[in-house]
Amino acid sequence: MQYAPTKGTTIEDKSIGSVNAFQRLNKMRTFIAVELIADLKKKIEELQNPLKRINTDVSWVKPGNVHATLKFLGEVSEDKIEKIFEGTKLALEGMKVFKLSLRDLGCFPNLKRPRVIWIGVDKGKQELSLMQKKIEDEMGKIGFTREDREFSPHLTIGRVKSPKNIEKLTELIKNINFQTGEIEIKEVVMMISELHPAGAIYTPLKKIALLT
User: Fold this and answer.
1) 4 found inside a domain
2) In the sheet that 116-121 helps form, which strands lie side by side, from edge to edge?
């Protein structure tokens, strides 16, 4: 099914291979995000490798799943997907393609009590923040709870499960100098997340192209 594009914005409706299976579900775990190109995911994999060699209790995000989340929507009923799509289109109307680069590692809430391990956004931080604010506003209009915490553009690469050997890990994180070149962000993606024992599987549902 093709949707009429918002003026100045190209809309691409991506079908899901197992769409019939999804249609049988009452709800879908959904979020809105910016995806990364394969080359950048490879750099993230190379970054994770020495961190993984430390015997810690960390759940590492697969490099192919790393993304910049703009809005996590949670379990969404199928009949609300179209409203989310239309709200996201409206939020992104007039937004242009932009450059993004990554820099540094850190932890939330801090290195002394790490729960989330992240890569920071360098170039493109303002654009991501603006998109997140506009999407947050539109999702609020259709009943989604607003995020209380201030938005901090980042990419989650690991989640700490216990303090096992965590000091060794944070010491390594402090001493890693990570920086990437620039990539072009051309679209925002509505994603479905399926949780499996081997890890989450993310499937693009709809894509909204930014202005060139």
Assistant:
1) no
2) 58-60, 154-160, 116-121, 102-108
